[in-house]
Amino acid sequence: MSVRELVVLGTASQVPTRHRNHNGYLLRWDGEGILFDPGEGTQRQMLRAGVAAHDLNRICVTHFHGDHSLGLAGVIQRINLDRVPHEVTAHYPRSGQRFFDRLRYSTAYRETVGLTEAPVDADGPLATTASYTLEAHRLSHPVESYGYRLTEPDGLRMLPDRLAAHGISGPDVGRIQREGSLGGVTLEEVSETRRGQRFAFVMDTRLCPGVHALADGCDLLVIESTFLDEDVTLAEEHGHLTAGQAARAARDAGVRHLVLTHFSQRYPDPADFERQARAAGFEGELTVARDLDRVPLPKRR
Q1: Which of 67, 219, 229, 291 is catalytic?
Q2: 67 catalytic, yes or no?
Q3: How many CA atoms does the CB half-sphere of 266 hold within 13 Å?
Q4: Is the pTM of this model over 0.85?
Q5: Whole-angstrom Cα Rg for the chain
Q6: Residues 218-231: pLDDT tens digits?
């Protein structure tokens, strides 16, 4: 059975605390692992979460502030130390190439793994596999920043009542799926579209078109909520969202499960983020992320 879940490695913004590591998030999507924004300490958090370097297929960096990228050096060196047997691809803003290079080669080590660099410099698709399309959208932050979105292709759901009505059962179900028709009955008559799952990762940003494009129709949205609503002026000044802003964006986008994260150290009670998100009108499933949480994608509609 395929596994699709978010493993939360860290949830702090800028300054880690006793209870919150710097950022880090692993998305398990079937047989692949996509690591987002590995901040300082990510390699150790991976160990605590039971995540191995062999689990990584892609690394996606939204921008080059330290709490989102300082863990790159350790993660890349661990990939090489463990001799990961498959290609690993890194996506990051092209404008930060010099930072990526410095982190990749910050100390001496033996390169044993082919790390493919695939920098981002525009909105649009980055990669397409059998199980998803990965795309990026520009966000609004003091340094260039991109959010990421995975979209599974739509599939088909067979309808047992319609199959039975046409006398189709057993091996003939597979046959009509392969051939498109059987005995004058078309595949469309006995099936319906099964909407592909959608996931988005939105970090440091003000409200902007990219936030809405990334969140649209998501089954699982991971989004920063650095500030509470009473500090909206600070949020705007520093290029961040409040809990209420993030929740309203999710509400308007039809998000099913909202994960709030990237919290400022100034707030001791994480329950305040949940209260403000609910007050903003978000009624779906809601997680105020904690380090080492595991959040499954919702079941298909």
Answers
A1: 67
A2: yes
A3: 10
A4: yes
A5: 21
A6: 999 999 999 999 99
